[in-house]
Predict the structure.
Amino acid sequence: MSDINTERRNPFYILLVVVSLAFVVTALAYAVVPVLEEKARDAGSPPPASPIRESLRSDGWVWLLWEGAAVVLLAVLSMGYDRLQRGLQKTPSNITIPPGEPHTPTARGSDADPAV
């Protein structure tokens, strides 16, 4: 029939994606908005005052630091949650390679010394 995946979803992953997207948008705005304002001033039509642009100009680097820290924190939480979920899963009952001495492949068809 149909295989229903009962594995729980990682709640930190979607947060990581959203915060990472916010970081990229903020970084682009921090880099591009001043250039666009300068071009508008050079063209003779200064842009209207905007509290968001003013805040980005003065505190954009702080926004980027906080968002970067959030990306790192959510990435660590996401990886830790995945590792925890993997550890809690049952081990498979059919092991394909029996435990014991590790298998070392032999060189066949080559000039390797068989006594070694």
